[in-house]
Amino acid sequence: MKAILLVLSFIVVTVNLSCSSKRPKGQTEAEILYKESKKFMEDGQYLLAIEKLNKIQSEFPFSYYATPSELLRADIYFEQKNFQEAAASYKVFLDLHPRHKKESYVLYKLSESYFRQLPSTYDRDLESGEKAIISYKRLIRKFPNSIYVKEAKNKIKSCNEMIKLKEVYIADFYFRTEVFISARYRYLGIIKKYREKPLVNLAVERVLKSSYSLKEFSECSKFYKNYRSLVSGEYKSRIEKLGEKCRKALKKS
After folding, report:
1. What is the per-residue pLDDT for 27?
2. On the chain, which terminus has fewer CB atoms closer than 10 Å, C or N?
3. Residue 7's pLDDT is what?
């Protein structure tokens, strides 16, 4: 009885091993490795997937599957949520294969890799958002009819909103801490870049207040003349008072 059980156990182990070691079909070893890598990626076995791609690149660098394996590597990094490595890999792929048939897809994934590096709050580094905007715009420009265009436009808006909030946050910080020369510089940038009335109203007021606090009354008067037409609502009277205050101070100086 024990002998029969041992034989049966051996058969089960042998069958399992043969099934687990069964490889996909392919005309070349490079093709088989590529298919294995894709399967490992689909199963979430990313390290094994990368291992297969490394073998393609080291042993079959001139095969047909060398180029697809470069793109698959980037996709694996993306699936791992390793977005920095993914972005670097997509960028290298575009540099090496500028007219590849999957260029629109690669541009989209590159943009997404940057976008997904954005922090949850606007008071942190937003460099990845700026890179995402550049990449999404490149995608829209090169492939205006792409299925990715609508999403790209929405993501650009999201990035721009975060960047705007950060610019206001920095300007307000400088103003609050009385670093008026830096505050004025930031608010001037906001006036030039944005058209939203509440934001422009506040920025114009604080440009004048910063100039007055710096005792730069000539600059204050100049800014008043240049920007008073941009102000609306209750801010009109406030700007008029600030302008008059600067003119009087200028006469006395």
Report:
1. 85
2. N
3. 41
* Owner of token pair 């922090």: 119
- CA of 53: how far to CAs of 31, 42, 48, 72, 238, in Å? 11, 14, 9, 8, 66
Q: Are 153 and 140 in contact (CB under 8 A)?
A: yes
Segments forming the whole domain that contains residue 185: 179-253
Secondary element (H or E) of residue 9: helix 2-20
Is the residue at 183 inside a domain? yes
Residue owning tokens 């999403």: 151
The residue to which tokens 């002998």 are assigned: 3
Of the chain, the end-to-end C-alpha distance in Å amounts to 112
> What is the mean pLDDT of the segment spanning 131-159?
98
Q: Which pTM value belongs to this model? A: 0.85
- Split into its structural domains, the chain has a count of 1
Q: Is there a contact between 86 and 63 (Cβ–Cβ < 8 Å)? A: no
> Which amino acid does the sequence have at 148?
Y
